[in-house]
Amino acid sequence: MRTVFKYYKSYIPLIVGILAFLFGQAMCELALPGYMSDIINNGIVKGDMDYIWKIGMIMILVSCGSVVCSIVSSYLSARTAAGSARKIRGALFDKVTDFSAAELSEFSTASLITRSTNDVQMVQQTTVMTLRLACFAPIMGIGAVIKALRTSVSLSWTVGVALAVIVVIMLMSFFLVLPKFKVLQEKLDRINLIMKERLTGLLVIRAFTTEKTEERRFDDANEELKKINMFVNRAMSFMMPALMFVMNGVSILIIWAGAHLVDSQSLMIGDMLAYLQYAMHVIMSFLYITMMFIMLPRAAVSMQRIGKVLDVEPRIEDPAEPKTLQQPKGEICFDHVSFAYPDADEKTLDDISFTAKPGQTTAIIGSTGSGKSTVLNLIPRFYDVTEGAVKMDGVDIRDITQEELRERIGYVPQKGVLFSGTIASNLQYGKEDATCDEMIEAAETAQAMEFIKTKEHGLDEEVAQGGTNVSGGQKQRLSIARALVKKANVYLFDDSFSALDFKTDQALRKALKEKVGDSTIIIVAQRINTVLDADQIVVMDEGHMAGIGTHEELMKSCEVYKEIALSQLSEEELERGRK
Amino acid sequence: MADSNMGKRPAGSGFNGTRKKGGRGHGPGGKMMPGEKAKDFKGTMKKLMGYLAPHKFALIAVFIFAIASTVFNIISPTILGNATDKVVEGLMSGTGIDFTGLFHILMVLLGMYGLCLLFGALQGWIMADVSQTVIYELRDAMSKKLDRLPLKYFDRQTHGEIQSRMVNDIETVNQTLSLSLTQMITSFTTIIGILIMMLRISVIMTVTALVVLPLSMLVIKLVVSRSQGHFKNQQKYLGYVNGHVEEMYTGHDIVKAFNREKESREVFDAYNDKLCESGWKSQFLSGIMMPVTMLIGNLAYVAVCLLGGYLAINGKVSIGDIQAFIQYVRSFNQPISQVANVANQLQSTAAAAERVFELLEEEEEVDLEKTPVCQIAPEEVRGKVAFDHVSFGYDADETVINDFSFTAEPGQRVAIVGPTGAGKTTIVKLLMRFYELNGGCIRVDDHDIRDFSRADLRQMFGMVLQDTWLNSGTIRENIRYGRRDATDEEVEAAAKAAHIDHFIRTQPKGYDMEINEEANNISQGQKQLLTIARALLADTPIMILDEATSSVDTRTEALIQKAMATLMQGRTSFIIAHRLSTIKDADHILVMNHGDIIEQGTHESLLAQNGFYTNLYNSQFAE
């Protein structure tokens, strides 16, 4: 929370200004009933028309003053809220951009998105509300109490009674109705969930002809939702009239008690009417303050969620005095590398050593959870090793800047992530000033040109956010092309061929060999076909290296490899495959 | 009447506000955004009325109660004024206040407030029942409709859109039914009632007070038209900021790997600055609307005080009248802005309701009501499947399957192969009559599948799809999905046959372990095995299998293959195959490309043809 408040610091003068103007506004508004009372007491009762005019003009001036104050404070609070929200949003975005994969997975991407968008929005709204309402209501309330007491002390019990009744109503709703809102949300979520399941499982449901069961499941949830909705609505339909009744009741009380005071000459008639209005101000202020108590906790949660992100220090930082790579070639060397995820008990990788040389293809294979993707993620420093070192051209990658390291690497993720824009803008992500020819060459190598050609606008075809308008296989090929445009020394493919059919997979690997044959290529794969012809294959099994060598060597020496190979292809096919 | 000078009360009053969260509203000032409009306002409203019709007596009661409570509400200031007059009278005449008379008036007043409370609460109570029942029925109708829509419909609509109709749109209608409807009644009654009461007190004062009204309308209109642009911009840039955040966070590793942090920050800052600017402007403009209209209201207040004072001195009106009149003037603004609000709300409700009715009126599957010509018990089906000159297209003008004929004898294994996106699942979908053919027919045991009821037909097929759909529920429930009346023993036997029994037993709660919402507490491979167990339990004469290409570890993979083999035993089976071992064991192979069956035959005969299949087969290994 404190981290977030920091961003309001530069707005303190504005906030002081807001308070001052709110105070002015409250004073003006509280003055009005007094003048009205004067008109009645000294004007109407005494029949003095000039006096009425004079006070009338003052009242207009006071009204104008109140409005001016209100507009100024409105302006200041709008600036404060939007400005501080901008700062918080910016700080969050900067922070998350600096995060490494470790911090990112700690929060989960989805949660970070909500924190940077909805939570900030929530804080901004609450800031406005707080500045204009939470600050105003107490000023107004206290002012009205003072005015009321000044007008008549002996009537103050009436307001006390009203507030007491309101507190009871509020408490009742706090304990009876408010928890139900939570339940209501849960039921609504349940309806949503069932709906989602029915839509995604449409085929299965129809195939098993369980439509009726699903309808019943939905009906149950629907019935429950109806019940809780009814309860909440009924309670609410009682709340509003009840509050009105209390306010009206208090005016009856004031008139009755006031009349006695007027009768005994201790209160003027105008003052009684003014008192009526002060009483209403007190009650309304009180209601607003209670409402703020409902709103503020929600905003506080948002603030805490934001604060948690801002408080994190990214683990991966550039060295103070970075070395530079002289004539980079792209040799990657794992030197007794071990790695454990933060807070994990067990090591994900244990004592991994191998060297991937330029001009060679190194494949990493293993079952799910064996740690093969983790090996790859250590190279661009998405994570840092726990023990040992990863070296590029003999230099520990932690000794050079992240920018220089990544400049050398062409990375292709498992899921083809594209950005909104055009196909060309996505390819240029690899190299900002890539020419059309360069892009076409890369796309051809990645076997992407074939489908790019079929698009109406070719390279300039729009790509929607999240790349929803291109298929999985196309996304993969485009993200391969994006990496190729970069012309890097090291290419990392994280199971990047999985969505391609065998034919395309094969053609792509052939083209790769021709075009970027001098670079270091490291491929993580599931399919045995993909790795068959690699210069060396690293076999991973539960975080250990189970073997390293060529296909033939491993077939002889490595049980784990043999098992994987035979599960996918028959012996005969494996034989054939090599020929 | 609640009389507040605070002027910050959001329209519709604070307490309802908590209920309005979510939905389409976006923060403060959301009400100022122009709502979307329905294409056919009248027609939609008529249909909505159709749903309300069965509740007409309840609705009439709501009307009466709402009007009654409003009328009492309107009369009460006058009576309160009378009470004040009693006090003033006593004061002026010097005879002392007539407390018995005053007490009498105040008791009447208390009674009226009481009735007001009673009617108000009753009205809300009944309306809550009516609106929730109607909403329940609407949801129910949509739920039932969902199962009657052809698959074609779901190809056209995204899940998100359908879901939005079922949740957001219904919620909008709900808001209107439970709030706006009665609000409209009370607002109209209040406006008319107040006018009458004010005119009764003094015509000239009424005219003075009303002159102000158009003035405040004009100001509101001016401010709204000014702020609208900023609001739109705010929404726009909020969208940009959110979009950029989402993209950059999900593509975080890409941004890093390509050293684009700086660029990404620059884009963000630009959006963020614009958002901030449009944000404070729209906030400010909507913020000043209240004080400005309040100023106008106060001017009216002062004018009424002055004029009232003048008239009072001349004895034309009493002090109590002035007091009542001021209350009327104060309470006049709210119902007017409410009516304006309700009009907007009605528009967006109509738009939402229209989308709901659109879904409800979608064309349903053909022959849904037709009595089936033919009935065979699943255990008597032999499993002969014949495609007879079948042609089909997802769109009428684009045929994807042309004149396809083929017969699978009982117990045969048919493999469907082809590159990604060749339309292999289309065949399967036609078999189970998810889509209607354009020409030709499909026969099971020599009966046209259209002669069966859909339920009977589908009960002949078991299905294991790559997309392993599981319910959030226990493992046992999920397996039992195959056959609802299966005993626990049968469920466990099926699990054993699918080689998943051991895994299940090692889980925390065994067969009663809950699969969570995202179904990510069990692995992909295990999910696959569960769906196989589900299909085994269903024990259907014909099987449809989709081999997984997705990442499953080696050991599970072996289990899946074994389980699938069990599944196919003695059944006619169609396999969308990715593995050569499966393909070679098949009795018949259908080779598909670009949605068409281009070759068919056995593995050997296809290789002999030296065509597309040979090419496909060799591509896996050729160097």
Q: Are there runs of chain A of 5+ residues with pLDDT below 50, and where? A: none
- Cα(first) to Cα(last) distance of chain A is 66 Å
CATH architecture of the domain at 52-202 and 317-364 in chain B: Up-down Bundle
How far apart the termini of chain B lie comes to 89 Å
Instruction: Report the radius of gyration of chain B as a whole number of Å.
Output: 36 Å
Helix content of chain A: 55-70%
Total helical segments of chain A: 21
Q: Which segments of chain B are poorly predicted (pLDDT under 50) over 5 or more consecutive residues?
A: 1-34
Describe how the helices and strands are arranged.
The complex is a heterodimer of chains A (579) and B (623).
Chain A: H1 2-5, H2 12-44, H3 49-98, H4 101-107, H5 109-134, H6 136-151, H7 156-200, H8 202-207, H9 211-263, H10 269-311, E1 332-339, E2 349-356, E3 361-366, H11 372-378, E4 387-392, E5 395-396, H12 402-407, E6 409-412, E7 421-422, H13 423-427, H14 436-445, H15 449-454, E8 462-463, H16 472-485, E9 490-494, H17 502-515, E10 520-525, H18 528-531, E11 536-541, E12 544-549, H19 551-557, H20 559-568, H21 571-578
Parallel strand pairs in A: 3-10, 3-11, 6-9, 9-10
Antiparallel strand pairs in A: 1-2, 1-4, 4-5, 7-8, 11-12
Chain B: H1 14-17, H2 41-52, H3 56-93, H4 99-146, H5 151-156, H6 159-201, H7 203-250, H8 252-257, H9 261-313, H10 319-360, E1 385-392, E2 401-408, E3 413-417, H11 424-431, E4 439-444, E5 447-448, H12 454-459, E6 461-464, H13 475-480, H14 488-497, H15 501-505, H16 524-538, E7 542-546, H17 554-568, E8 572-576, H18 580-585, E9 588-593, E10 596-601, H19 603-609, H20 612-619
